[in-house]
């Protein structure tokens, strides 16, 4: 098992290198001069020249790239051009925010998606199935920004139940922190729940038609036991993979949702960084999310092995 | 048991009223400010935070005249080369360092010499500055500069603690130490900037808030929703489309002030190959374009009538507005006649504009207006950084841009239309305009300056390197219980006298 994990980590390294080259080059392809943005309205030529020098923008691309990689290997991700904060600090500040949002969104997705999926599989073709499907499709189709604004207007402005937007660190005021995150997590969660529901449904449908489920029923086991103990356990494998991937995507930041609810997470950080041509921040964040994504993939594979005894033997 | 419950409830409610009495003001900003060091800072929104954090030598009044802040009085020598300033006694920086002439000298030198300083161009006329008394400084100028007072009423005049500046260097940006009515507590990037009352401030009695919290909320709808739900006490840059709703809402207040800046279309007159079109080469064509626009209708349709139509570098409400050139009414026949005179039947043009819905709407309205005179405009929606680069590189025919505005008219004009001006992307060049705008810098007499600007204006109105369209109005929305706020044309938020009832 350990050697398997190690092997997977080694395979991930070339991927990361490719990602970093790709992001580095893509950014340079973007039109727009970071120094023009940084110099401010006045665009003092002396300042422009100084900044170009300072951020090595006069060097050839390949030199710039290796300089950046060299620094990253020493743990120095550079400094934000916009606020002069170290990129590592920015990432460290935003990571808990993004993780909290991702975890809460996943909780919503699980709470809605899995029961709905099981229910619609068990009651296939009934009104319940259609209603669950309708809700799932709505969750997929409603744009996040629209649902977000509607929720703010209803829950915060009209009912006054939750703060309209913003963020409070969990360690500072846990209650307020969760309050500010409920709506954005719900908005993200409903979209994910739809995907989860569809996959749970099809996985369950497959399993429910298998022989051993029929046998279990024939034995006279209660319906609930058959569905949860016999069927769901076997249907859970693809759901685990899917959840890990969905979680990985959430870690890359939820751009629109973070923008609407003014949550200072990865999504907002990277969007602002792109618009300000804040190269160091974009590179740092993308590298970090790539690591997160690869990690989630790895976890999915490990969980797969743990959950499926047949795969253990093949290791 | 019951008494214990009661006691807890009482304690809880006492704690809550205690919280309510601590007067916090939560202000919603449109963007997240950049570096919090006045020498390195470059955004409009950052200046809003500085207004409460960093006192300046000079401030402005709502009618844009200069009033004392850290400097109590100032006078010019007859040749306009020496500016002597008396300074406030008893002012201290947030770290306890006393404010005096030495501090001013250190600050001006930092603004002039720090390699990262964005203030250099504002202080080029200052040759040296010396402490000529404990509370007196003397600026020696290389050439007379009427704009210096205005510069010292903005970021160039903001005073940092020399002790902190020495110790922190560039890192001052993340921990600013100034001498304003509020001091820096913390900043969470893209989330909030918290300031708290500075008890030793010389005018502390006039500041009634314990804490000021700036919250960047870029989405205008969400910003307003936060105000309505009570999560904000006030917000800046309300969307014009929300103005009527706020005015009709009895629980909210609406404050506005016409800005010092402008929005217009900068025309490529001489900046590379793309200037080669009748639009860039024939002033009659630009005049026709300008005449084909109904500026009042633009204001009504796109901005709900809350902005100010304009045709000059300053708004019609400014003391520097040239009344001899009023905003002209739309005249399609005259525009058509000018195009015929220039030998143009229909002219295809590409104009770049920021890719946000409001500016797109503006350009579409203009597109259909000028089409009637004979212009076929294609609008190129461009993201800001790309637009800026295209503009400096001359890769444009027309560019819909603006300027946030400066208190002195020189700041809205000189860099844009003088031959060597740093912001002259049009590459307009006229010896007469250069001579006049340079002359306007050399005298402090307002009438004299106005006469010089009038002469320059006659040329600029004929040549139209920039076709001015309108002036933004700063719009603030406040909750009903916030009192004492007054809007200023510079769009800043000044908190003297502001209370949360």
What does this structure look like?
The complex is a heterodimer of chains A (315) and B (501). Chain A is mainly alpha-helical and 315 residues long. Chain A contains 14 helices and no strands. In chain A, α12 packs antiparallel against α13 (279-307). Chain A is globular, with a radius of gyration of 24 Å. Chain B is an alpha+beta fold and 501 residues long. Helix content of chain B is 33%, strand content 23%. Chain B has helices at residues 2-21, 44-53, 101-113, 148-152, 162-168, 220-228, 240-248, 278-281, 283-291, 295-303, 332-341, 357-371, 384-393, 410-417, 431-440, 446-463, and strands at residues 24-29, 58-60, 66-68, 71-76, 82-87, 126-133, 136-141, 182-188, 192-197, 211-216, 234-236, 252-258, 262-267, 308-309, 347-354, 375-382, 398-403, 466-471, 473-479, 482-483, 499-500. In chain B, the strands form 5 sheets. Chain B has a 7-stranded mixed beta sheet, with helices on both faces. A 6-stranded mixed beta sheet of chain B has the order 14-18-13-17-15-16. A 4-stranded antiparallel beta sheet of chain B has the order 4-5-7-6, with helices on one face. Residues 5-20 of chain B have low confidence and may be disordered. Chains A and B meet through α2, α3, α5, α7 and α12 of A and α6 and α13 of B.
């Amino acid at each position: 098992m350990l050697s398997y994990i190690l092997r997977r980590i080694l395979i991930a390294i070339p991927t990361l290198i490719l990602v970093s080259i790709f992001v580095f080059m893509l950014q340079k392809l973007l039109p727009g001069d970071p120094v023009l943005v940084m110099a401010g309205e006045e665009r003092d030529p002396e300042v422009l020249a100084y900044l170009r020098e300072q951020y090595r923008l006069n060097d050839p691309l390949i030199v710039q790239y290796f300089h950046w990689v060299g620094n990253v290997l020493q743990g120095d991700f550079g400094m934000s051009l916009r606020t002069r904060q170290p990129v590592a600090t920015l990432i460290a500040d935003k990571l808990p925010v993004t993780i909290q949002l991702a975890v809460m969104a996943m909780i919503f997705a699980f709470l809605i998606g899995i029961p709905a999926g099981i229910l619609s599989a068990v009651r296939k073709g009934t009104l319940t199935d259609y209603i669950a499907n309708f809700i799932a499709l709505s969750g997929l189709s409603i744009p996040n920004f629209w649902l977000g604004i509607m929720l703010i207007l209803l829950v915060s402005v009209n009912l006054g139940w939750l703060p309209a937007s913003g963020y409070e660190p969990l360690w500072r005021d846990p209650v307020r922190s969760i309050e500010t995150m409920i709506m954005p997590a719900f908005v993200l969660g409903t979209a994910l729940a739809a995907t989860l529901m569809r996959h749970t449904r099809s996985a369950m449908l497959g399993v429910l038609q298998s022989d051993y489920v029929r046998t279990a029923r024939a034995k006279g086991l209660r319906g609930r036991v058959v569905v949860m103990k016999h069927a769901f356990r076997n249907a859970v494998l693809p759901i685990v993979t899917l959840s890990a991937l969905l979680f990985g995507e959430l870690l890359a930041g939820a751009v629109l949702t973070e923008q609407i609810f003014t949550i200072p997470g990865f999504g907002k950080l990277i969007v602002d960084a792109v618009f300000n041509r804040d190269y160091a921040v974009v590179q740092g964040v993308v590298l970090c999310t790539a690591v997160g994504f690869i990690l989630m993939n790895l976890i999915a594979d490990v969980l797969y092995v743990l959950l499926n005894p047949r795969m253990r033997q093949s290791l | 048991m019951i008494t214990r419950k009661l006691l807890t409830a009482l304690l809880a409610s006492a704690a809550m009223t205690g919280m309510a009495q601590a007067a916090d003001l939560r202000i919603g900003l449109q963007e997240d400010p950049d570096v919090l060091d006045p020498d390195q800072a470059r955004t409009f929104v950052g200046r809003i935070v500085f207004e409460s954090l960093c006192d300046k030598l000079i401030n402005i009044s709502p009618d844009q005249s200069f009033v004392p802040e850290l400097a109590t009085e100032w006078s010019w020598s007859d040749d306009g080369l020496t500016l002597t300033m008396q300074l406030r006694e008893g002012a201290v920086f947030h770290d306890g360092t006393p404010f005096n002439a030495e501090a001013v000298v250190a600050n001006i030198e930092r603004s002039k010499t720090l390699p990262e300083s964005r203030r250099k161009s504002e202080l080029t006329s200052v040759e040296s500055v010396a402490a000529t008394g404990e509370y007196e400084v003397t600026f020696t100028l290389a050439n007379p500069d009427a704009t210096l007072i205005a510069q010292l009423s903005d970021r160039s005049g903001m005073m940092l603690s020399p002790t902190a500046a020495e110790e922190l260097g560039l890192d001052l940006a993340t921990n600013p130490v100034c001498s304003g009515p509020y001091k820096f507590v913390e900043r969470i990037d893209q989330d909030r900037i918290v300031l708290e009352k500075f008890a030793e401030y010389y005018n502390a009695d006039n500041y009634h808030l314990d804490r000021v919290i700036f919250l960047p909320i870029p989405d205008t709808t969400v910003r307003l929703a936060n105000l309505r739900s009570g999560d904000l006490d006030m917000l800046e840059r309300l969307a014009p489309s929300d103005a009527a709703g706020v005015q009709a809402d009895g629980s909210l207040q609406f404050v506005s002030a016409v800005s010092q800046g402008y929005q217009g279309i900068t025309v490529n007159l001489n900046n590379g190959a793309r200037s080669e079109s009748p639009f860039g080469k024939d002033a009659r064509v630009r005049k026709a374009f300008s005449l084909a626009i109904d500026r009042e209708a633009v204001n009504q349709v796109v901005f709900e009538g809350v902005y100010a139509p304009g045709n000059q570098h300053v708004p019609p409400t400014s003391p520097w507005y040239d009344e001899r050139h009023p905003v002209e009414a739309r005249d399609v026949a005259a525009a058509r006649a000018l195009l015929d005179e220039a030998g143009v039947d229909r002219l295809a043009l590409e104009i770049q504009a920021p890719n946000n819905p409001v500016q797109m709407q503006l350009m579409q309205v203009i597109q259909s207006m000028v089409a009637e005179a004979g212009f076929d405009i294609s609008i190129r929606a461009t993201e800001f950084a790309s637009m800026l680069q295209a503009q400096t590189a001359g890769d444009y025919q027309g560019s819909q841009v603006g300027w946030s505005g400066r208190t002195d008219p020189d700041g809205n004009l000189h860099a844009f239309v003088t031959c060597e001006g740093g912001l002259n992307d049009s590459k307009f060049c006229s010896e007469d305009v250069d001579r006049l705008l340079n002359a306007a810098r050399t005298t402090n007499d307002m009438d004299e300056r106005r006469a010089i600007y009038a002469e320059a204006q006659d040329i600029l109105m004929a040549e139209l390197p920039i076709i001015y369209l309108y002036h933004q109005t700063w719009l603030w929305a406040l909750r009903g219980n916030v009192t004492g706020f007054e809007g200023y044309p510079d769009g800043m938020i000044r908190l003297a006298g502001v209370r949360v009832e």
